[in-house]
Amino acid sequence: MSTEQTEVVRPTAEATGSAATRAFRENAPREATGSVSAARVSAIARDVLARIHAAIREHDVTYPEYQAAKQWLIEVGEAGEWPIFLDVFVESVVEQVHNAERVGTKGSILGPYYLAGQKAFAGRCTLPMRPNEQGTPLVFEGQVKGTGGEPVAGAVLDVWQADANGYYSGFAPDIPDGNLRGAVTTGSDGRFEISTIQPAPYEIPKDGPTGKLLAVADWHAWRPAHLHLIVRGSGYSNITTQLYFAGGPWLDNDVASATKPELILAPKRDEGGNLRVTYDFVLDPA
Ligand code: DHB
Ligand code: FE
Questions:
Q1: What CATH number is given to the structural domain containing 96?
Q2: Number of folded domains that form the chain
Q3: Dihedral, CA atoms, 196, 202, 205, 211, nearest 10 degrees?
Q4: First vs last Cα of the chain: how many Å apart?
Q5: Which of 80, 176, 235, 265 has its C-alpha lying 20 to 30 A from 16's C-alpha?
Q6: Average per-residue pLDDT in the chain?
Q7: What is the separation of C-alpha 116 from the centre of its chain, rounded to a whole number of angstroms?
Q8: Ligand 1 atom index nearest CA of 109
Q9: Residues 212, 213, 215, 220: is their CA dihedral positive or negative?
Q10: Cβ(20)–Cβ(83) under 8 Å?
């Protein structure tokens, strides 16, 4: 691997946001939307509005404040940042409600940077990466099992992650399409071994409306380093999750509130300084 350092181009919030909005629209028919009954829309919308009204009364919200909020909401949409804002500040609770009864591997949020249709690999593989990909090499291996302990042959691990600068391919300039993404199929023993690099923590783009809110509220914008996965097995319930790294920053104060103790990896370093870790997934029955 070359040590040549290329200059990193920081993506603008607007470019990242509009790419995230486009990705949501493209994924939505497959992954994100279901049919929602009029009765549910009515009940939930009524309740959300009632809680906004209560906050306005509680804080004696003024007209300038109302107009500033309206302006900000318009800007979030114009910058395409609704996927980023919602997945950071809302999705974790939807995930907790959705996966409350699950007994296998814990879930975590999907986030805005999933792209379907990535390159397919057999159980032992190296994720697509640039010849000079920065970051500590990481081998992530394990087995996909059912709740009865049986191996799941032909399970597919859809994996995606940020690079060593915290950026995702498809959402930042100068990263080739499909970089650090793949769909890995387990062998007859349910096993996989994925070679990749250690991702960096992720920071929400700071130069857009979401970043503006974080700045005025004096909140940090960071998520701990993580691998994203959707694990699918025929006859099993899919799990969308993330795996984190012990000892890294932001584990205890993830801006997206999406960490769980069961999802923290503790890779060991080999003599060459490379990282290796084993993690088994347990899929609930469909
Ligand atoms: C967001 C980004 C992520 O990488 C992630 O895992 C979850 C949320 C976001 O910016 O909304
Ligand atoms: Fe992420």
A1: 2.60.130.10
A2: 1
A3: 170
A4: 42
A5: 265
A6: 94
A7: 13
A8: 7
A9: negative
A10: yes
Q: Would residue 5 count as lying in a domain?
A: no
Distance of CA 20 to the CA centre of its chain: 12
Ligand 1 contacts (CB < 6 A) are: 84, 87-88, 109, 111-113, 202, 204, 223, 256
- Candidate from 18, 24, 84, 87 with most ligand 1 atoms within 8 A of CB, to mutate: 87
Q: pLDDT-derived band of residue 218, with 50, 70 and 90 as boundaries? A: very high
pLDDT (0 to 100) of residue 2:
47
Q: Whose CA is nearest to atom 7 of ligand 1?
A: 111
Signed CA dihedral, 190, 180, 127, 278: sign only: negative
pLDDT digits (tens, 9 = 90+) for 136-151: 999 999 999 999 999 9
User: Rounded distance, CA 247 to CA 21, Å?
Assistant: 33
Helix (H, G, I), strand (E, B) or coil at 54: helix
The alpha helices in the chain, defined as continuous H runs, are 13-27, 38-58, 63-78, 82-89, 91-98, 209-217
Residue nearest to atom 3 of ligand 1 (CA): 111
CA 88 to centroid of ligand 1, rounded, Å: 6
Asked if residue 45 belongs to a domain, the reply is yes
- Which structural domain, as residue segments, surrounds residue 75? 13-283
- At 195, list the tokens: 């070679």
| Residue 8 is assigned to a structural domain of this protein | no
Q: Is residue 4 part of a domain?
A: no
The span from the CA of 118 to the CA of 158, in Å, is 8
DSSP 161-193: E--TTS--TTSSTTS-TTTTEEEEE--TT-EEE
pLDDT band at 30 (very low <50, low <70, confident <90, very high): low
163 C-alpha to ligand 2 centroid (Å): 10
